[in-house]
Known about the structure:
Number of helices: 1
Order of helices and strands: EEEEEEEEHEEEE
Oligomer: single chain
Distance between the termini: 42 Å
Amino acid sequence: MFVWGSVIGNFIFNRLDTDIQKVKSLKDVGLPQFVGGILNLHSFANVTNLEGLPNNVGSLYISGFKKLSSLKGCPTYVKNGFSVLLCPALKGLDYLPNHIGGGITINHNRNLLSIDGLSAVTNVVNGNLFLNGNFSLKSLHGCPSIVDGHFSCE
Protein backbone atom coordinates (compact mmCIF):
# COMPACT_ATOMS: atom_id res chain seq x y z
CA MET A 1 0.00 0.00 0.00
CA PHE A 2 1.26 3.46 -0.91
CA VAL A 3 1.25 5.95 2.00
CA TRP A 4 1.28 9.67 1.34
CA GLY A 5 3.28 12.10 3.45
CA SER A 6 1.94 15.63 3.38
CA VAL A 7 -0.31 17.14 0.73
CA ILE A 8 -0.12 20.92 0.77
CA GLY A 9 -3.13 21.37 -1.54
CA ASN A 10 -6.30 19.29 -1.93
CA PHE A 11 -6.68 15.51 -1.70
CA ILE A 12 -9.90 14.46 -3.38
CA PHE A 13 -11.08 10.87 -3.69
CA ASN A 14 -14.52 10.84 -5.21
CA ARG A 15 -14.47 8.18 -7.89
CA LEU A 16 -17.26 5.69 -7.51
CA ASP A 17 -17.10 1.90 -7.36
CA THR A 18 -13.38 1.37 -6.97
CA ASP A 19 -11.93 -1.55 -5.00
CA ILE A 20 -10.34 0.78 -2.45
CA GLN A 21 -13.80 2.14 -1.58
CA LYS A 22 -14.81 -1.34 -0.41
CA VAL A 23 -12.35 -1.35 2.52
CA LYS A 24 -13.73 -1.55 6.07
CA SER A 25 -11.24 0.94 7.51
CA LEU A 26 -9.70 4.16 6.21
CA LYS A 27 -6.45 2.92 7.77
CA ASP A 28 -6.24 0.56 4.78
CA VAL A 29 -6.36 3.42 2.24
CA GLY A 30 -2.99 5.06 2.95
CA LEU A 31 -4.31 8.60 3.29
CA PRO A 32 -1.93 11.56 3.68
CA GLN A 33 -0.65 12.41 7.15
CA PHE A 34 -1.48 16.08 6.56
CA VAL A 35 -3.74 17.86 4.05
CA GLY A 36 -3.39 21.64 3.85
CA GLY A 37 -6.35 22.10 1.51
CA ILE A 38 -9.53 20.09 1.14
CA LEU A 39 -9.71 16.41 2.12
CA ASN A 40 -12.74 15.11 0.21
CA LEU A 41 -13.72 11.45 0.53
CA HIS A 42 -16.80 9.96 -1.11
CA SER A 43 -18.65 6.63 -1.01
CA PHE A 44 -16.60 4.41 1.26
CA ALA A 45 -19.62 2.15 1.79
CA ASN A 46 -18.19 -0.23 4.44
CA VAL A 47 -16.30 2.23 6.68
CA THR A 48 -17.90 2.59 10.14
CA ASN A 49 -15.61 5.28 11.64
CA LEU A 50 -13.02 7.82 10.52
CA GLU A 51 -9.91 6.26 12.06
CA GLY A 52 -7.07 6.67 9.60
CA LEU A 53 -7.72 10.32 8.75
CA PRO A 54 -4.94 12.86 9.34
CA ASN A 55 -5.15 14.93 12.55
CA ASN A 56 -4.85 18.25 10.74
CA VAL A 57 -6.65 19.28 7.52
CA GLY A 58 -7.61 22.50 5.77
CA SER A 59 -11.21 21.39 5.16
CA LEU A 60 -12.96 18.03 5.48
CA TYR A 61 -15.79 16.75 3.30
CA ILE A 62 -17.18 13.27 3.97
CA SER A 63 -20.04 12.04 1.78
CA GLY A 64 -21.87 8.82 1.06
CA PHE A 65 -20.39 6.62 3.80
CA LYS A 66 -23.36 4.22 4.13
CA LYS A 67 -22.19 2.47 7.33
CA LEU A 68 -20.49 5.42 9.08
CA SER A 69 -21.91 5.22 12.61
CA SER A 70 -19.19 7.18 14.46
CA LEU A 71 -16.97 10.18 13.80
CA LYS A 72 -14.24 8.55 15.91
CA GLY A 73 -10.92 9.27 14.21
CA CYS A 74 -12.03 12.65 12.90
CA PRO A 75 -9.19 15.18 12.61
CA THR A 76 -8.63 17.20 15.77
CA TYR A 77 -8.02 20.41 13.79
CA VAL A 78 -9.93 21.62 10.72
CA LYS A 79 -8.69 25.04 9.61
CA ASN A 80 -11.72 25.88 7.46
CA GLY A 81 -14.93 24.03 6.55
CA PHE A 82 -16.34 20.74 7.79
CA SER A 83 -19.05 18.67 6.07
CA VAL A 84 -20.71 15.31 6.65
CA LEU A 85 -23.29 14.41 4.01
CA LEU A 86 -25.38 11.37 3.13
CA CYS A 87 -24.27 9.11 5.99
CA PRO A 88 -27.48 7.27 6.94
CA ALA A 89 -26.00 5.24 9.84
CA LEU A 90 -24.71 8.34 11.69
CA LYS A 91 -26.81 9.05 14.82
CA GLY A 92 -24.68 11.59 16.70
CA LEU A 93 -21.82 14.04 16.38
CA ASP A 94 -19.44 12.75 19.06
CA TYR A 95 -15.73 12.97 18.14
CA LEU A 96 -16.03 16.17 16.13
CA PRO A 97 -12.76 18.09 15.69
CA ASN A 98 -11.62 20.23 18.65
CA HIS A 99 -11.37 23.15 16.22
CA ILE A 100 -13.42 23.96 13.12
CA GLY A 101 -12.45 27.36 11.74
CA GLY A 102 -15.07 27.78 9.02
CA GLY A 103 -18.56 26.75 8.03
CA ILE A 104 -20.21 23.50 9.08
CA THR A 105 -22.52 21.40 6.93
CA ILE A 106 -24.29 18.37 8.40
CA ASN A 107 -26.82 17.47 5.67
CA HIS A 108 -28.97 14.51 4.66
CA ASN A 109 -27.95 12.12 7.42
CA ARG A 110 -31.44 10.69 7.75
CA ASN A 111 -30.94 8.90 11.08
CA LEU A 112 -29.05 11.67 12.91
CA LEU A 113 -30.71 12.00 16.33
CA SER A 114 -28.55 14.64 18.02
CA ILE A 115 -26.24 17.54 17.27
CA ASP A 116 -25.04 17.79 20.90
CA GLY A 117 -21.46 17.23 19.75
CA LEU A 118 -21.43 20.67 18.13
CA SER A 119 -21.52 22.42 21.51
CA ALA A 120 -18.28 20.69 22.51
CA VAL A 121 -16.53 22.21 19.47
CA THR A 122 -17.67 25.78 19.26
CA ASN A 123 -20.14 28.39 20.39
CA VAL A 124 -19.41 30.48 17.28
CA VAL A 125 -19.44 29.25 13.68
CA ASN A 126 -17.21 31.40 11.47
CA GLY A 127 -19.22 30.84 8.33
CA ASN A 128 -22.43 29.09 7.41
CA LEU A 129 -24.18 26.40 9.45
CA PHE A 130 -26.33 24.01 7.42
CA LEU A 131 -28.35 21.25 9.12
CA ASN A 132 -30.66 20.19 6.30
CA GLY A 133 -32.36 16.87 5.59
CA ASN A 134 -31.61 15.27 8.96
CA PHE A 135 -35.15 13.99 9.31
CA SER A 136 -34.71 12.12 12.63
CA LEU A 137 -33.35 15.21 14.39
CA LYS A 138 -35.84 16.31 17.07
CA SER A 139 -33.97 19.19 18.71
CA LEU A 140 -31.38 21.85 18.02
CA HIS A 141 -29.88 21.37 21.48
CA GLY A 142 -26.10 21.78 21.12
CA CYS A 143 -26.41 24.31 18.31
CA PRO A 144 -23.84 27.14 18.46
CA SER A 145 -25.20 30.44 19.78
CA ILE A 146 -23.58 32.56 17.03
CA VAL A 147 -23.42 31.82 13.31
CA ASP A 148 -21.38 34.39 11.39
CA GLY A 149 -23.03 33.53 8.10
CA HIS A 150 -26.18 31.75 6.96
CA PHE A 151 -28.06 29.28 9.18
CA SER A 152 -30.32 26.74 7.52
CA CYS A 153 -32.20 23.87 9.12
CA GLU A 154 -34.84 22.31 6.90
